[in-house]
Amino acid sequence: MDAQMTPLDDPLFDAPSPIMVLVRPQMGENIGAAARAMLNFNCARMRLVDPRDGWPNPKAVAMASGGSRVLERAGLFGDLAGAIADCDYVYATTARGRGLTKPVRTPERAMVEARAMLEAGKRVAVLFGPERAGLENEDVARANAIITVPVNPAFYSLNLAQCVLLMAYEFNRLSTETPPEVMALAGTDFASAIEREKLGDHFEERLEAAGFFFPAEKAANMRLNLRNMWARLALTRADVQTLHGMLRQLARRRDG
Q1: Which of 42, 67, 113, 176 has the fewest beta carbons under 10 Å from its own?
Q2: 200-250: per-residue pLDDT in tens?
Q3: Confidence tier at 3 by pLDDT (50, 70, 90)
Q4: CA distance linking residue 92 with residue 129, whole number of Å
Q5: Residue 2 placed within a domain
Q6: CATH at residue 152
Q7: Is 91:126 a contact under the CB 8 Å cutoff?
């Protein structure tokens, strides 16, 4: 934590985010790992319900690394009813059928809904069960809806921190403007249209000399496909220079 910042004036805790409620967590290490995962994705509100090994827990702090600021503000409750008493909407994470009539949502759908409620001033909680067996039916019954991660049905067990990370990631993803794909150009630029055109001319020249455009009736379409390929590859200037160099070297070797 910054030396000039106390847990009470950390701006991260002022931003709306779902409350991650760990219900009867068993290992301090998993609590710490969950806190670290939350902070990775700008979620800071944690509540603990009857942790098995008591609280505070030095193993949690050690595992949290820089995420200890989440632990410093974590609320401690003796039962689930108290932990969610002030919440307007509650999700329960579980992969098992519960025999309860409730809407079941994916993490993505649930966090879209949660963000809308938070922006409207509502308080939203997500429940996570103990590591050994997850939430009990009595816990799930207190929730408004269920979140189920679409995992391998033959092996659906998720580590506590993994599950927290998935929810925090989906929530944070909705608020970021990170493009889904970028090109890391590594000090170069994309090749211009004229540079691609000249590369195409060079290739056609060398391929013509090698007898590639055969039979003659197919040559025009072969040239068109090559031109289309150069545009589709999004070549950089460095790529174009390398390909020109390759062609020149091959020609030198061929000509002796």
Answers
A1: 176
A2: 999 999 999 999 999 999 999 999 999 999 988 889 999 999 999 999 999
A3: very low
A4: 8
A5: no
A6: 3.40.1280.10
A7: yes
Give dist(CA 119, CA 11) in Å, integer: 17
- Comparing CA positions, the residue from 45, 49, 51 lying closest to residue 79 is 49
pLDDT number for residue 6? 42
Please state, in angstroms and rounded to a whole number, the distance separating the CA atoms of residues 195 and 95: 55
Higher pLDDT, 37 or 156: 37
**What residue has token string 């649930």?**
110
Task: Provide the number of structural domains found in the chain.
Answer: 2
> Residues with Cβ < 8 Å from 91, sequence gap 6 or more?
18, 105, 110, 114, 124, 125, 126, 127, 143, 144, 145, 146, 147
**Beta carbons of 17 and 42 less than 8 angstroms apart:** yes
Same domain (yes/no): 16, 60: yes
pTM for this predicted structure = 0.73
Mean pLDDT of the chain: 89
The single-letter DSSP state of residue 209 is H
- Both 94 and 201 in one domain: the answer is no
Structural domain span for residue 237: 193-255
- 89 and 133, same domain (yes or no): yes
* 46 plus 139 within the same structural domain: yes
Please indicate, yes or no, if residue 183 is contained in any of the structural domains.
Answer: no
- Helix ranges (DSSP H) in the chain: 28-40, 58-64, 68-72, 80-83, 107-119, 137-140, 160-173, 193-209, 219-232, 237-255
Kindly indicate the confidence band of residue 2, based on its pLDDT and cuts at 50, 70 and 90: very low
